[in-house]
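Bug: token stream looks shifted between consecutive jobs. Job 1:
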Amino acid sequence: MATTTAPQGPPVKTWMGHPGGLVVLFLTEMWERFSFYGMRAILTLFLAAELTDGGFGMTDVAAAALYSIYNSMVYFMALPGGWIADRLIGTRRSVLWGGIVIALGHYALAFSSHAMFYLGLVLIVLGTGLLKPNISAMVGELYDKHPELHESRRDAGFTLFYLGINLGAFIAPLLTGYFAAKNDWHVAFGIAAVGMTVAVIQYVLGGRRLEGVGLRAHKPLQPHERGKILRIGAIVLVIVLALLIADIAAGTYRAEHVITALTVMALVVPALYFVTMFRDHTLTHQERSRISAYVWIFVGAMLFWMIYDQAGSLVNLFTENDVDRTVGSFEIPTAWFQSINPVLILLLAPVFAWLWTKLDRRQPTTPVKFSMALVGIGISFLVMGVAGALAGRGLISPLWIVLVYFIQTCAELLLSPVGLSVTTKLAPLRYASQVMGLWFLATAAGNALNTWVTPLSAKVPAGVYYGGLGLLAIGVGICFWIGARKIGQLMAGVH
């Protein structure tokens, strides 16, 4: 590492011209995403695998529903995770405790017990909620301590950080998928646990390079606020326990009731956030207009992620059962297909960045990009519809799945970075953090909807299911295109 002198401070180590702490956060995020995507790639496969093969023997629909609510809660918990860091313990300890809880969750998955498995999922959800939003915030805080670095250096730093995400997402399914294909499920889950353990260890050892970032809460909870928070928490806990006890006492309890309750929560909470903001009479006309525009951004993102994230559930199971994965004497593990998206992201993200830079002010507006993304994700499911129809005659070529993921990756690059950017621009200053949380809630809500949508796949032919959702997305995308000018007006100067 080289050294540089920050204003009014001792020389600090740098990494490739960036703050030295970036390498610590890069490696932490890379290994955390390694563990997350390694487990995600095999979760539905494990749940749907026969008992004799070491799985849970669930139906495809049940496996997809559990996967969907798990994925939903991972993103939903980013909201309280960010609050805990901002008001209670700071981002540094939030990331540390989040990493430890995630690691414990993955180790719990490595046991054969059903109870330990579900405990593991809960721990991963809680830990990811603490880690995921706060480690990104720490990257920004790290650059805030180095005003001598040009803003472009900050952008490049986030690009390197994003590279770590996709490196972890690419490598993990190759390893966990190899053992999953041999029905060594708990070895595969154990690999994800080891990855998270490495993340925690290097995060602790590299603490000095973080230069004191995130050691304190940004807006510590005041004594008079603690009582109010505790009362609200106690009331919510009592209501939840009362409903659960009543359900059990009546002899009507089923796991589906919990999934339904969590689904409703993931849909109601963002709606309440919007209602709260619209009822704030201190907002200016411009701020209120921008929130109105963001409602449409949120709905578009929710539909997009609802379809996109079926790659890890129904599309994954389709690849397992209906795709010819044999190459000579070797059968490609199903989970390996989950590495296609991160590879394509690494290849195509620079192309899209160059394109937007080249077009400059001639590039499409945000509503138009969202329109293109929704049409793209719709086309990907039309392709899946054709593949599903062909699968009725026998195993199909894996190139169908590669094509689906290619189209989805292009659509993702039109929506994900654009949506994140416009969220920061449309949010009223006093609601900046909460509106950023809403961006995570769009993914949570989309995955929650899948608990109701994916069961339809068992009631209609695959071609009808995928094709129908594809046409829905294309229809909404066309509506975005038609309404782009109106949404643009509501955005009040934000391009």
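Job 2, same session, no restart:
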Amino acid sequence: MEFANIKSVYFVGIGGIGMSALARFFRAEEKQVGGYDRTSTPLTEELEREGMLVRYQDSVAAIPEHFRDPSTTLVVFTPAIPKEHEELNWFRNNGFSVMKRSQVLGLITKHSFTIAVAGTHGKTTTSSMVAHLLRSAGIPCTAFLGGIAKNYHNNLLIGEPYKGLHYVVVEADEYDRSFLTLYPDIAIVTSMDPDHLDIYGNAEEMVKTYRQFAAQVKTGGWVIHRKGLPLPSDGRVVPYAIREASLISGKDIRIDSHRYTFTYSGLGAEWKNLWTRLPGYHNVENAVAATTVARILDLPEEKVRKGLESYTGVLRRFDYQVDTDRHVYIDDYAHHPEELKACILSARELYPGKKITGIFQPHLYSRTRDFVDGFAESLSLLDELLLLEIYPARELPIEGVNAKMILDRMTIPARRIVSKHEALDLVKKEQPEVLLTLGAGDIDQLVAPLRDMLNKL
């Protein structure tokens, strides 16, 4: 189907962060947009307010009439949708163009100057930072992001051509090998820690797929990757690192008034005293990667400097909810052991000597099974853990896999399994100095109640 012939787009799984960005893109293109999701969320409610029709029942009979013509309707689905989904199967069996989200993204970016950011973690922050640096420097890029960028209150930025090129920044998702639909001009790979082993089977297969993604960068393009990742080395592949020698490096790092200041060195530049609002050495690393894109595109130092200083981050990425003399409450999407470690250590760096309490919700039975020891090790960096049961997302239960597996392997004494309601009661009773909520499931339902509670205590 040619995009010009599309009048309606129906999303099966419209409430996902990546799907909703695409839905907003087609709505901006003045298409009729609607779709299905399992439950109502603040994000789906926003989509409805923006003029999209969102349904919460899997019913073929209830699909609106303007999404029932296969000659004018494109159907987009996420691989997280179960195979037995009635609506998706009806579309497939009745002559509709049915495409994965990643395939559509590949078509949209095909004729653009594309900057794609991949990695087990760090890609949402880095991609939104790249987009912000471009926009701060006067390049009105389009961006498809895997989170809500605080500077723009959106996961989609709509741009326009600049000096004959349409710049697009996209988060390149490794789940289901989705990023293999992309052929970027610049690729960033922030990390390659094992994940999604339900898809890849083993870490070696995941590495092989990342190498394939890197090989798809266009002739004359660049691959920017964190030093030490097992990617092929040639003239267009440049590593970056912090606090160690590398072709690109962030050095002279120090914490000053809760801000991380550093020197960017590489590609002919030595930019001193850059700083970012984002906490943690891992975010300095992300800033070095984003700044490298700015150097490749020859953006002026002063505009890059101001862009880094004005970048405020992504919702649910070390996201301050309460910051008073009595309480600090930070919400974070961390759902992989390395992400948890980075978040907890960042809190320790910023609040030395204070007790840190975490509420964590594991995401997926398969991920819990595959990384149970890593979860236990990272969560043991807390002083106290309130552990929720596993959020299943797309998965059915796996026998013997539960939250207690993590709890039993941890080394700190202050740990327990709780319900969401019990977690709220315990926070009210204990009034922690520093509180973290961690996880990618529906733990975000606790954010507003915890924020309101702590602000009153």
